[in-house]
Amino acid sequence: MQRRRGPPLPSQANSGAIGVPVGKVAQAPTGSGRRLGMARRPPAALVWAFVGYLALEYLRPPMLQAVKLQLLFILALPLFWVQSKERPWSRNLTLQTCFILAGLLMLPFAHNNYVVYLDARFMFGFLVTAIATTWLLAYRREFRRVVWIWVAIMCFQAFWAITHNGRGYGTYLGDENDLALACDMAFPFAFVGFQTLRGPRRWICGFAAVLLVCGVVASFSRGGFLGLAASGSYCVLSGRHRIRSIALGCAAAGIFYLAIPSDYKSEIESIREFDSGTGENRLFLWATAVNIWLDYPILGAGPLNSAYLMSEYTPAPTESGLFSGRQYTERIWAMRALHSIYFQVLAERGLVGCVLFGWLAVGHYAGLRRLRRELAASRPRQPALAREVHLYGLGLEAAMAGFLVAGAFLSMPTYPYFWFFSALAVALERAIRREGSRPNVTQGARPAA
Question: Exposed e or buried b for every residue in 435-447, given b needs 16+ CB within 10 A?
Fold first, then answer.
C-alpha cells in the first residue's frame, strides 16, 4: 500500500478514494504526533498576542522600542506550547533547530564569541515565531487573518516609504533595502488575491499590489527590484490562466517602465556593471567570503564572524585588472556586510549550514506544490478550497522566490522572512489537511480573504 504523507484532503475523505472511511479521524502528517481532527483550537487571546507580536516586530514604534515587548511573547510562547495538549512539530522546525545548533558549535572557536551568542538569540526568536506559526495558524481562519494583517502592515510600510524618501517606519525597516524586501514578499499575496478573489476584496488587493510596487520604487533598492521581478514573474508563470496572466504582466511591466523616474532606471541598469563601482565591490566581498570558507569548510567561521575576519582574507588583484584600485589594495576591509545571503551562509556556517538552508528552501516548495497538486485534482469536489490553496500556496512560493533572488545581493540570514514563511507553508498544509480529518466538511464554501 502506498504510504500517505498526511490525512486525505476533504474531497478524498468524503469520497473514500484513499480508503479512509467517512467520519473517521485521520492521522496527522508525519512528525506532528497528534490527531488533527480532534485537536482543540488554541486560545484566541494567544492568537491575538501573536498578531500583536508581529505588529511590534515589523513596525517597532520608536516610543516602544526600548520596552521590547516582543521579548515577553518570545519567553511566554514556549511555556504555553509545552503546556498545550497539542504540540505540533515538523521537519521544518527540526532543520531550523539544527541550523541554530550548528552555529553554536563554533562558539568556543570563533574569532568573536559574543556575536555567535547574539546570533543564537536572534535565531531562537525566529524559532519561537516558527513554533507559534505552525501551532496557532494551523487553522484556516487564523491563517487567513494573520497573513492579511501582515500584508496590511507591509502596505503601511510602503505608504510610509513613499512619503519618507524610501525609508520604512520604525527602526526595523528604516533601511531602504530592508523595506524593499518586505514589500517584495507581501506583493504576491496582493497580486494573486487580485486574480483570485471577487468583489471589493479584489480591488483592495489590486490597490495593495500597486502600493507595494510603489514602495519598492521609492526605496531605490536594486536588490529589491530583482526580488519584485522574481516574485511577480513567479506569480505570472505559475498561476492559472497563464496566457492572460502573461498579457497582464507584460502590460503592467510596460506601465511600470513608463511611470518610473529616469534616475531609478539608471540605478536599476547599474546592476549589470560588475567591473566597476558597487558591482566590483560585491565581487570583492564574495571572493573574500570564499577565502574564509576555504579555511572553515565544514561549520564556517561562526555566525556574524565574517565581518571580523574580512581584512585577513581579501583577494589579490586579478590579471584582468579587477581589485587593482586603491580602495582594494590600500584600504582595510573590515566590518562590511557580504551583500549576499548565500556567500554569508557559506563563509559563516560552512557546508553544514548551506545544506540545512537549502533543505529548508527545497522543503518549502515541495510541500506547497504537493498540496496544490492534490487540491487541483480534487477541484470538482472542492473548488473553493482549491482556490484558497492556490492563493496562499502560490503567494508563499512567489514570496520565497523574491527572497531567494534578492538574497543574492543582500545579507539576510538574520532576517525573519525565510524562517517565518517556511513555517507559514507548514501551517497552511496542516490547516488544509485538517479539513480532511473532519467528518462533516462543508462542500463548496466560499473562500475568505
Answer: bbbbeebeeeeeb
Say yes or no to pLDDT of 439 above 50: no
Binning the chain into helix, strand and coil, the percentages to the nearest 5 are 65, 0, 35
Pairwise CA distance, residues 259 & 254, whole Å: 9
How far apart are the C-alpha atoms of 239 and 245, rounded to whole Å? 7
Give the span between the Cα atoms of 215 and 92, in whole angstroms.
Answer: 31
Per mean pLDDT, which range of 90-94, 150-154, 436-440 is the poorest? 436-440
Cα separation, 137 vs 120, whole angstroms: 25
Say what the pTM is: 0.84
Cell numbers 508581529 correspond to 54
The domain segmentation of the chain, as residue ranges, is: 10-270+341-436
pLDDT tier at 274, thresholds 50, 70, 90 = low
Query: Do residues 406 and 349 lie in contact, with contact meaning Cβ atoms separated by under 8 Å?
Result: no
For 129-150, letters b (16+ CB in 10 Å) and e give: bbbbbbbbbbbbebbbbbbbeb
pLDDT tens digit sequence for 132-156: 999 999 999 999 999 999 999 999 9
Question: Cell numbers 484513499 label which residue?
Answer: 18
Assigned C-alpha cell, 136: 496557532
* Position 169, amino acid: Y
Least confident of 55-59, 224-228, 324-328, 366-370: 324-328
Q: At what angle do helices 44-59 and 140-163 cross, to 10 degrees?
A: 20
**Is-contact 324 317, C-beta < 8 A?**
yes
Q: Which amino acid, 418? A: F
- Which amino acid type is present at position 194? F
Residue 340 has pLDDT above 70, yes or no: yes
Nearest Cα neighbor of 126 from 446, 413, 435, 431 is 413
